[in-house]
Structures are given as C-alpha cells and as structure tokens.
Design a protein that fits this description.
Layout: H1 2-25, E1 30-34, E2 40-45, E3 50-55, H2 63-96
Antiparallel strand pairs: 1-2, 2-3
Helix pairs in contact: 1-2
Subcellular location: Cytoplasm, Nucleoid
Organism: Aquimarina mytili
Coiled coil: 5-32
Length: 107
C-alpha cells in the first residue's frame, strides 16, 4: 500500500514539474490576432502577455474607434491564448495523473 502511495506521490511531483515547464513554454507561444479589416494587430503569448500592437494610421484619427478595436481584438487574443494554455495544461495533467479509483475527471 505504501509503495503505491510513494509511486503516486512521485508521479504527482513529476506531473507538477511538467506543468511548470509547460507554463514557461507558453511564454514562447505567440498568438497573432487582427481586427476584421486588419487595421489593428495584436500579438500575445499563450500566458496572456501582450508582446506587440500594430495600429494602422487610419485608426489614429478616431480615438473612440481605436479604443473599440483594441478592446475587441485584445479580448479575442486573450480568449485564444486561454484556450491554448488550458488545453496544453490539461494534456499534461491527464498524462501525469496516477490511476486513482474514483478520480477519473481527466479521462
């Protein structure tokens, strides 16, 4: 019984390490998102850190329109980044979970 527990604890520690490595790797995964007319482009990491914004000169003349574009485009980029990060972390967690009866939430 204790051997199984020690094995499970080791597996959990290994999984935790893989999760941390995956989180760090997500800093290098870049997501590009654009407005529908490509006047605004945002680059964000899978950890939801903005790394770049490109604004067409046409948007600089209308502050309200620029703000709307920023909100919409950044929110789309964040949604994509969140989806990528969650799926990557879920895959690592599923792979590393020990087979504990009754705990099959990742299957």
């Amino acid at each position: 019984m204790f051997g199984d527990m020690m094995g499970m604890m080791g597996k959990l520690k290994e999984t935790q390490k893989k999760v941390e490595e995956t989180k760090k790797r997500m800093d290098s995964v870049l997501i590009d998102e654009s407005s529908t007319d490509n006047f605004l482009k945002v680059t964000i990491t899978a950890n939801r850190k903005i790394t770049g914004i490109s604004i067409d000169d046409a948007l600089l003349e209308d502050k309200e329109q620029l703000e709307d574009y920023l909100i919409l485009t950044i929110n789309k980029a964040i949604a994509k980044a969140t989806q990528i990060q969650e799926s990557e972390l879920a895959a690592v967690a599923k792979e590393g979970m020990p087979n504990i009866p009754g705990l099959d939430m990742f299957k």
